[in-house]
Amino acid sequence: MNEFEFEILVELDRDAWATRREMDSGPSDQMTPRMATRGGPRVNYAELNQSGGNSQMKTKACFALPPQSRRGRPRGGVGRPRGGGRKAGTFPGDTEERGLFGAVRNGRTLEATFDEWVSSYETYPDAAIHSLLQFFIYSCGCKGTLERNLYNADFPKIVRQLTEGFDEESGDYPIVMTGQHYKKFRQNFSDGIHLLVNKCKASIIHDGQMMDKLVQLLIALTDSQARAFRHTATFAALKLSSALVDVAVELNEQQEKIKKLIEAEKSKMKQQKSTGEKMDELMRMKGDIEEKSEEIKQILSYIFKSVFVHRYRDVVPDIRSVCISELGVWILVYPHYFLEDSYLKYIGWSLHDKVPDVRHKCISALVPLYTRPDTAGKLELFTHKFKERLVSMVMDKDNDVAIQSCHLMTNIYRVFPTLLTVKDCIPIYEQVYANHGGLARAAAEFLNCKVFQQGDDSIENQYKLIKDLVTFFQEGEVHDHAAYLVDALIESNRMMKEWQIMVDLLLLDDQLEESSEGHLIEIMVCAARQATSGEFPVGRLVVKRGAPAVVKELRLLKEEKKRLSAVFIPVIAQLLHKFMADREKVANLMTIPSFFALDAYTSANGEKHLKELLEAIRTVMERHADDEIMSTATEVLALLGTNTLTAQISEPFSIALIDTVMLQLRTAATSFAGDATQGDEEDEAQLLSAFRKIAALLTNMDVRRPELWDIVLPVVTAITDGKHAATEILELSMNVLSLCLEYDLHRTIEEGGKADAIKKLKKRRDQFIVVGETVMQTMASGVETTFKCIVDVLVTFSSFDDHSDSIRQLTYSVSKDLASKLRRFVDDNVFGSHEDTSSLDQTSEIEMMHRKRSLLAQYCKLALHGVIPYLEAAHMLRHYVKFYSDFGDILKLLILKTRDTDRMANARMLSAALKLAYEDVKAETGGYVDPDGDVFSDLRDMAKRFAQSIGHDYEKSRDPLAVIHRDGIMFALEEGDPTIAPSSRRGAKRSSTAPPNLSYLEVIYEFSHKLIRQDKQAVYNYLEKKVSTMDVPPTAENQWQSYILYKNSLTERVADDNMSIISSAVSNFSLLTTPRGGRGRGRPRGSIAGSRMMTPMSEI
């Protein structure tokens, strides 16, 4: 066993290797080659195949690194074309640009060029063979040329010489290049080889000249150390074998025809209707065809043992992929010869390959074999040997491999129904709930084949299928959401749209258990939603190929909506009344009317069914106080109001319902406000129910009740004054008030902005904001809805530039006090809350994190809409690194959006955030910042990320960078308290004259590499100007290291070379007190003022 075989053994799975040892009964891999030469003996492929392989083809160094490329022309018959005219007896394909290689590269005159080559072969066979072999050398990306005289040529020696002179540093060669001239080379190369064999199949491939030399050259190239030679030659040899397989199949067909003719001729001879001359001719033809067929088989076997057996486990993944792909073609096209375990085992072993493309080629090669009756029956042993691996591949990390594996398992089940056990099927069942849509549908195909087999159209059979579906969903225990299961099956199984069968099962009392009814309702609702809207489940990745047929899809959705409406409109009220007591079932059933085609109510009994639905909705809202159910019910009412026909009946019902809810709310609110301090629990429950209903109505429609504001506001005032009540009542009250403001504003704008309406609206707006401030102050947490409502109102009233002057009077500007309160509320509830989450389950933790993210997003919305200054948002960015895993995406989006809106304000915001974070570090470390500490390292990391957000447009980023550097220098060089003198980071005591924020220069140091050279000079001058006014002792080197680092980042050409800056820091300290004379190193000629500078730089 050589070194490469040992490496492959390590990579193979133990079970697969055991299978290999068990199945491998092929001949040895040693063979002795014989070269056929013109005028000499032909290669005996049968003898070579019996010897088992070519010993020269197996070299231990085949995967060693290629040797250093040598300059000049290699010796020994290999060199570069020298030019000159065409010699007599040569073929024009001798040069790279013309002939075969040029035709294949251009892909335009392939057939004509190969016709010309065949003609030249008949006249000048030696020159034609030379040009053909030279074509394959050029196709490897090698410029070397072969000797003219190939008599007794030693191809392994020639390949070694070509390898020595081949420059493989670039790694590009024609079949892998993607440039303009080579993007179609690979396909043209394959087509050219097939075209060559097709044109030579009559005689040339059987004359023992061209084919022998070509095969020997390709085999020698496949054993080369150079990847370009090995890859190209393997590709060519295997494509050559594929072309020869087609020839072998054609010869087999001719043999069958000859046999039939011989049988017919024998019958004629028995009847004495024919002489023996025709029989003799047929027998001679039969012998010739058998001889050619046997020779082709021997060549195929020789190439397989000399190329495939060694290259199917090559270190280059594409070589392995080509090997498996072509083997699959051979087995499919010529199963009579290749459909044997001795060939199939290579596909089985490659199923364990580490590269997904190779595994995909293996599965793709097997899938069609199980669909053909003539091949499927011969795969039983192979299937048993590799069943475990094939089943596990449905869970492959590569989606394409997993999809093909599901298709393969479906085909295997159809051929061998008893082979797969329940344990084998479970991994396939689980893939129905996969995130990838294609994989889920492939698994659903298996599910349809094994579990949901379509029988006759009888009602009993349809009932059974639906029950099996519910049982599968109920007992799977893989996923608790039916939308994924529905999405996987809805396109492949028509039972998912059998609405009438589902309704009948739900209405009959003895068909389903109570738990099964809930699961069926969930499945039915999910199927109705997807069938009528075409929306895929949230989180499922669906890749659509090709242009979307929008018109056709919309037409199909419209037709399905009509079919669903015809089934559910008569029975939806009946279903709601039957399951009225079950909250989950009612919540699902209430969504079905939103999928109706409302025009269907114009049919017979449509008005009756609509009234039944409205009465059912009334009952639902009376029986259930659930937010989700009431929101869905009011959404259905709003939908019914959009259609002229249904609105005539639904609007009076909605008005009556609103009056009922308003009466309930007025009574409960009056009772609540009338109590002293402690409300009655029953009154509080009635008030909460009324608030939920009115909030649900307001979410979907304008109730047009002006007195609603005066009813709700006293409730909020009473709670803020100290009256005890549930937090949910306060949250719902604030939500109702904010919705009332939005509807009032909308009506005011529609009416043209009457003075009385504007005055009233301004008063209510101010009342709401004051009450909201009070709620945020009195309630430390749990009032996220109140904060959201305040943000929505502030954004809504922030700008009315596109409206009349009267409407512009409603514009509200946020005061500094309110902005400060909003900021502190977010700080306390998002970044400052340190709740113990150890006792919370995963769901509670997710909900808490969702609330925090929602609060932060709402606050960022204020900044993005210009309600608060960007500098206020800097207080959120100060936590960028510390809370990056939780809120990094929100804060990053804030930075990018503000940058696109106003780059200068964005720069000031980033600068302010860094200074705030620096002050936090000072507070945490007791007043002194250690630049070598972990906390300061996080601060520098934040500066790096901020610098990346500036962008790569140097023209647009010059002004923002100037702001950051100027503000940073001013902040860092501020004079501090001279009494503070803690130890510095390098052991010496800090001088009293050193500014306390000097280490902040190491923060803005991270922005230096973004400056262009002239801007660095401007910042450098500004820095020197500021430092020159300070008293710097000559012994203060250690205390001013941050300054030296920052200054050198403005003078060094490579600003991010920290080590070179640090090493030169002490030696350059004299620059602190001694001004640099002359132009200086690295300083451009001429005055800095003469270069084109922008405003911030000129200000510096």
From TrEMBL:
GO cellular component, one term: chromatin
Entry's transmembrane regions: none
Listed PROSITE patterns: SCD
SUPFAM superfamilies registered for this protein in UniProt: ARM repeat
UniProt GO molecular function: chromatin binding
Pfam families: HEAT_SCC3-SA, SCD, STAG
InterPro entries per record: ARM-like, ARM-type_fold, Cohesin_Scc3/SA, HEAT_SCC3-SA, SCD, STAG
Annotated GO biological process: sister chromatid cohesion
Gene3D superfamilies, per database record: Leucine-rich Repeat Variant (1.25.10.10)
Domain of life: Eukaryota
Family designation: Belongs to the SCC3 family.
The protein's name: Scc-3
